[in-house]
Design goal:
EC 3.5.5.7, single chain, globular, 5-stranded mixed sheet, Aliphatic nitrilase, Nitrilase/N-carbamoyl-D-aminoacid amidohydrolase, Nitrilase/CN_hydratase_CS, C-N_Hydrolase, alpha/beta, 6-stranded mixed sheet, C-N_Hydrolase_sf, about 20% strand
Length: about 350
């Protein structure tokens, strides 16, 4: 566990630049500086904030999404790249841990990726959302178990999940079993309507209680002009409002500051790390309140890939270099020896 008794966390709710990756990265860098100026040790951004969340895929039929999908490819982030270098530099310069959601491009596929930069600028974790949701399946590929890891950072043991991954109890339990102290949640925001914000709140408060950890959640924001640029249909525009619930929750399931549900802003709260033990003394869901002999999780934490190289076959001796009596195949010689043993036993 972290040696610090108090961590100052910042959750950022801002609008992306829907025109360029560089424009959104500039907003990220400015927000890191602003949060650091408020004394933040940890700065959290929304889901796939760079270059932007694919809001278009929620309101447009698949046959009409090609142009915007290709534009997302064009502005997506590769890891490493000048975009990630800039964020790493800001984390190092300000001495803060940064968790950033990006659309990651890996050759011909995009992924919903969460990047965790430590306070020295090192990339501690690159994880991909294991199951894109509904419309997102037309946009992103699937991640694997290698990203279901809790990492040690300057603010303590940190785990992260994106959006509806929080509805996968085994994914959450994988992080709980690794004793996360701070859980980072990221959602798109400006989506579905007020009911989405209500569902987010229930989800993150429950995880805080069940895991006995702090939850720092960031959701995005769209301006009215941005919503109109995504679709001119006023009926569909209703699906691009609401759904914002930027919040910081204690291990006791309480908001440490009032959540941010409208507009842009940065929430800042101090995390009293002693509350983790206070909660777990009563209910440690992966310790004294667990029954691993009855129920336990098996996680395949290997990275999945489309190909792996087979092992080189064991070298075989050159039979021509052996004495005459040893030139037969080793397998044949073994069989001859077994036959001799059987004949000896029969005699």
């Amino acid at each position: 566990m972290t040696a610090k008794t108090s961590i100052r966390a910042a959750a950022v709710q801002i609008a992306p630049d829907l025109a360029s990756r560089e424009g959104t990265v500039d907003k990220v860098l400015a927000a890191i500086a602003e949060a650091a100026g408020k004394g933040a040790d940890l700065v959290v951004f929304p889901e796939t904030f760079v270059p932007w969340y694919p809001y278009f895929s929620f309101v447009l039929p698949p046959v009409l999404t090609g142009r915007e999908h290709l534009r997302l490819y064009e502005h997506a982030v590769t890891v490493p790249s000048p975009a990630t270098d800039a964020v790493a530099g800001a984390a190092r310069r300000h001495g803060v841990v940064v968790v950033l959601g990006v659309n990651e491009r890996d050759h011909g596929t995009l992924y919903n990726t969460q990047l965790v930069f430590d306070a020295d600028g090192s990339l501690k974790l690159r994880r991909r959302k294991i199951t894109p949701t509904f419309h997102e399946r037309m946009i992103w590929g699937q991640g694997d178990g290698s990203g279901l890891r809790v990492v040690d950072t300057a603010v303590g043991r940190l785990g992260a999940l994106a959006c509806w991954e929080h509805y996968n109890p085994l994914a959450r339990y994988a992080l709980m079993a690794q004793h996360e102290e701070i859980h980072v949640a990221q959602f798109p925001g400006s989506l579905v309507g007020p009911i989405f914000a209500e569902q987010i709140e229930v989800t993150i408060r429950h995880h805080a209680l069940e895991s006995g950890c702090f939850v720092v959640n960031a959701t995005g924001w769209l301006t009215e002009s941005q919503i109109a640029s995504i679709t001119p249909d006023e009926g569909l525009q209703r699906g691009l409002r609401g759904g914002c619930m930027t919040a910081i929750v204690s291990p006791e399931g309480r908001h440490l500051v009032p959540p941010l549900t409208e507009g842009e802003g940065i929430l800042v709260a101090d995390l009293d790390m002693s509350l983790i033990l206070k909660r777990k003394r009563m209910m440690d869901s992966v310790g004294h309140y667990a029954r691993p002999e009855l129920l336990h999780l098996v996680l395949d934490g290997r990275a999945a890939g489309p190909m792996e190289f087979a092992r080189e076959p064991a070298a075989q001796p050159d039979l021509r270099s052996l004495p005459d009596g040893e030139r037969s195949d080793p397998a044949d010689r073994a069989a001859d020896q077994r036959i001799a043993v059987v004949r000896s036993a029969a005699g």
